[in-house]
Amino acid sequence: MKSPFSDRLDRRTALKWIGTAAASSLIKPGAFALNSSPAAEPGVTIAAAYDGPGYGADPDVIKDYAPGELWPLTFDDHQRRTAALLCGLIIPADEHSPSASDLKIHDFIDEWVSSPYPQQAGDRKVILTGLIQLDVTSEARFGKKFVDLKSAQHAELCEELAIVKPEAAPDPSEAAKTKRSLQQFFRTFRNLTAGGFYTTPEGMKDVGYTGNVVLATQPKPPADLLARLGLD
Amino acid sequence: MPLITSSKTQPEYDVIIVGSGAGGGQTAYTLTMEGVKVLMLEAGRSYDPQTETAMFQTGAKAPLRGSSTPDKPFGFFDATIDGGWTSPGEPYVRASPGRANQFKWWRARMMGGRTNHWGRLSFRNGPYDFKPRSRDGLGFDWPLDYEDLESYYERVELLIGVYGENHGMENTPDSAPGVLQPPPAPRVGERLLKKRSADIDVPVVAAHRAVLTQRQDSKNIPAKLHPNNPKAQRVLREAMDSRAACFWATSCGRGCSIKANYQSTTVHLPPALKTGNLDIVPNAMVREVETDDAGRATGVVYIDKTDGTEHRVKARAVVLAASAASTVRIMLNSKSKRFPDGVANSTGLVGKYLMDTVGASVSGQIPMLENLPPLNEDGAGGAHVYAPWWLYKEQIAGKLDFARGYHIEMGSGKMMPKMGTGSGLEKFNGGGSWGKNFKQDVRRYHGSFCGMAGRGEMIPNEDSYCEIDSIVKDQWGIPVLRFYWKWSDHELNQVAHMQQTFADIISACGGRVLSGGPEKDRRDAIHPGGDIIHEVGGAIMGEDRRKSVTNQFGATWDVPNLYLTDGAPFVSNADKNPTLTLMALAWRSSDHLVGELAKGNI
User: Fold this and answer.
1) Which chain A residue has its CA at the smallest distance from B69's CA?
2) Which of B181, B216, B385, B549 is the most buried (most CB within 10 A)?
């Protein structure tokens, strides 16, 4: 059986994807070990975000803003499709709320990784590198880019990347390193997806946040809840 | 008399006030209500909370979901303009090496200063807090007692509106009946924290905050605050009637467009302007206080930031209320033949004994609070409960390895989701999840977290001070401050005690510590100096003019018509957050100034 994060991916295929990414000016091809983190490799550089000013120390806090309004976005069409797909896998529609991709959280993630502020620079590297690595791994295992996989294949990868079991001693193999790197990417992507999603009205409703409305009196918590917690 | 530009100032005023925050606002209020003609200079721009406050805006429509950036360190909606840990064009220098020796300086260049965003926690200092040296031999005593300030605490509480409760606790003064507004009920998680804290003998009671939970009694309070002054009563009655009570939504840090909480721009400045006795020039960056040959203050020099021009304004008295460090900076930059080391600095003490509040934080997760039903726990937009310092007896008996106390600000609730919601769940949901399971996990854990922040007293020391940097200047060519900082073992040991106590409370709730617990080195756990934004001291008051900068009324010993009414004259920095005490002192100093003006002494 093929190792889940095989280091036997043929080099030509890998370079093809790296070339695609390079064409989009995100990375420069160089000495690229197939299954280690590209960001850690010399010669592979994620292009810096827009380095213009941010919104300044006296922004208009009343108006509404949309991704791309304050600084240019980064994702090309393929990255945007991949990010949208991942958003929908991490937060799918259910009986409580729509999916993160329905709410275009991938555009928020693009805004985030394109930010001129230093806090987002680390996430930019993780996300842009991870999106490439996800395709490299999908190709190695299934012979297709991530967006072209079947839903069972998406599920297989998500299951491996989302759930990180503690290891007694970290496996030093290249495949294990790649897996850990992709798990870090997945965790970051999930955090951003969640932050983007749960700050929307739909997300707030989903977690049972019912505030931000004018009330005449302070609402009382339900008596049965207080009783259950021994606080009545 | 209103908001004006530099070209519209009068030839001379009774009093110039530098700064429009809690100290400047209170001073302007008290003076103008007594008929004193005042010019206020504010370094920041004009600001209107009624039209500029982001009340109901949500993260989804804000850049980066409203999260913090170097431009807006407390988040996009925080009511801070042209400020934060840096302020455009206005550098400062941190001279001490190492994280634990840093001093961070938060400024807000806007009308009302930092009062627009503050936490509104309003605690009275107790009797011990005015005589700390007499009690434990450390630091300095104040040149006044609790009894001297008690009636001023009451006046400020009645004027600004403070919710809270009286509990008769040691060194935690009660207010007179009817003074405090009713406190909000604790949130569900806070009820649990309160109950389980009591099990380990940590008393949790209602917080005191400057938020109206009901309309003010505008029929009776004005006559109480301004007896025999019908005009002041009328002005205050109108101002009180323009304020609404809290409508149980939105965070106070954004400011408040309905004036339910205190900020100088909604509570102090409108009635002061209404008297017709106040001119305010915004964008006025004061460089120095000028004095005459007799050593009396004659006025100030400022740069109008709108066009860079220099202006000179004159008055019978000058009040500095620019914030402790800014006041020190203006004094040290006010050099003359008579005051070669800065105005009113014959002792060389200006800049010395800078203090902040000791801070450390621990967060936890409490399984009992998982799967809460839908709730609205916005409450009064800030803290509902706290634990006043409870170990005075143990401390004075020598059972603790630190000399001064701290209080605990604690919170838990099903609050508005923000960046960070849904993050970090892999620590307790089996290593992480995705899909419908992830959504279920976020629902389960939202509202199950708690946070505890310790706020403790720092003892003034010789190594925490500021001076003028010999090289660096701001964009108007004004020399800037250079800060030195050091924590002593009293503060570091206090932090270790906080960490253990907070972990014990979380354990008592059946929860787990997520960050900041006792295993974290106390030097990493303690916030850097200035981080709590309670900077006070630098021009301490005292009974002995050789050992202090001002008398008990904030009037400088060297220059009797130069008053300081911000945090600069603070002699100690009790764990009780300084703003209420600062306002009470400012009112008392202003009464003294009114008397001196009336007597013709000034």
Assistant:
1) A117
2) B549
A157/A141 Cα distance (integer angstroms): 10
Residue with tokens 């106590």: B501
Q: Which residues of A touch B373 (CB under 8 A)?
A: 208, 222, 225
Long-range CB contacts (within 8 A, 24+) of A91-96: A91/A193, A91/A194, A91/A197, A91/B435, A91/B438, A91/B439, A92/B435, A92/B436, A92/B439, A94/B436, A94/B439, A96/A205, A96/A206, A96/B439, A96/B443
Proportion of chain A above pLDDT 90, given as a percent: 73
Q: State the pLDDT confidence band at B435, using cuts at 50, 70 and 90.
A: very high
Query: For B186-343, where are the alpha helices, taking DSSP H only?
Result: 188-199, 221-225, 230-241, 264-267, 269-274, 324-333
Residue B268's closest CA among B23, B599, B564?
Answer: B23
| Strand (E) or helix (H) holding B359 | strand B358-365
B484 near B529, Cβ under 8 Å?
no
CA distance B565 to B551: 12
Q: Is the pLDDT of residue A9 over 70?
A: no
Using the structure block, give the residue that is written with the tokens 């008690």.
B150
pLDDT at B304: 98
**Res. A5: pLDDT tops 90:** no
Q: Which of residues 184-243 of B touch A (CB under 8 A)?
A: 184-185, 187-188, 191-192, 195, 213
Q: CA–CA separation, B237 vs A79, rounded Å?
A: 61
Categorize the per-residue pLDDT at A45 as very low, low, confident or very high, splitting at 50, 70 and 90: low
For residue A170, the model assigns a pLDDT of 87
pLDDT at residue B360 is higher than 90: yes
pLDDT reported for residue A1: 37
Residues of chain B with Cβ-Cβ distance to A165 below 8 Å are: 431
User: How far is residue B327's CA from residue B582's CA, in Å, rounded to a whole number?
Assistant: 14
- Dist. CA B156–CA A168, nearest whole Å: 60
Contacts of A105 in chain B (CB under 8 A): none
**B484 vs chain A: nearest CA distance in angstroms?**
26
Per-residue model confidence (pLDDT) at position B98: 81
> How many helices (H) and strands (E) would you count in chain A?
8, 0
Q: Are B522 and B93 spatial neighbours (Cβ–Cβ below 8 Å)?
A: no
Q: What is the CATH number of domain B186-206+358-456+490-525?
A: 3.30.410
When pLDDT is averaged across residues B316-325 and rounded to a whole number, the result is: 98
ipTM: 0.95
Q: Would you call B66 an interface residue with chain A, using a CB distance cutoff of 8 Å?
A: yes
Task: Name the residue ranges covered by the structural domains of chain A.
Answer: 11-228
* Side-chain-side CA neighbours of residue B524 (13 Å): 8
Asked if the Cβ–Cβ distance from B443 to A207 is below 8 Å, we say yes
Contact B432 A162 (CB under 8 A): yes
For chain B, how far is it from start to end, CA to CA, in angstroms? 23
Q: With an 8 Å Cβ cutoff, are A229 and B421 in contact? A: no
Measure in Å the smallest separation between the Cα of A19 and chain B Cα atoms. Answer: 30
Give the least confident one: A72-81, A90-99, A105-114, B93-102: B93-102
pLDDT score for B428: 87
Q: What is the pLDDT of residues B208-230, one digit of tens each?
A: 999 999 999 999 999 999 999 99
Within 8 A of B84 by CB-CB distance, chain A residues are 57
B527-544 average pLDDT score: 97
Q: Is B398 on the interface with A (CB under 8 A)?
A: no
Token output for B573: 């920095």
Mean pLDDT to the nearest integer, B398-423: 97
The two tokens of residue B302 are 């400022």
